[in-house]
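pinned: reference chain
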Amino acid sequence: MLTECLELKVSKEQQEREFVNTNAESLALAWFHRDTAKPFCIYAGSDMVGFLMLGCIESETEKSCEIWQLMIDEKHQGKGYGKAAVKAAIDYFKSHPVYEELCVAAFPENKVAVKLYESCGFTLTDEVLDDGEVVLAFES
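pinned: its C-alpha cells
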C-alpha cells in the first residue's frame, strides 16, 4: 500500500506549479505530526486513486481540522474523486463534534481547487498565508 501511494502523481503542470506536495512529503509530514495528522488513501474499488490528509488539533485553545493535502493521481483526475474526498473530509469533521472549524488553504491561481472547495461548501476568508495561499472555511 505504501509503494502504491508513493507512486501516485499529479500532472506535470501541477508538479511544476507546486500546488500539491508529493505523497512522500505528505507522509513524512504525517510522521512528524503524528499526533495531529490523519492520512487517508482514496480508493475507487480496489484501485488507489489519491491521497487525503487532515490535520486535526484538539487543545484548550484550538479545536480545528484542516485539509492539509488532497491529491488525485493524474490518470484519475476529472472523475469526481476529489469532490468525493472533500465530502469524506467534511463527514469526518461532522462526525467529530469536538472540532469547531474545518478549513483548507489553496493558491488563488489554482482555480480548479478553489472551485472544488467552494462547490463543497467552503467560502473564502480574508486570511492569506505567508506563501500566498488563501484560506477557505467550511460553512455547515
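why pinned: The first strand starts at residue 37 and ends at 44. The two ends are 33 Å apart (CA to CA).
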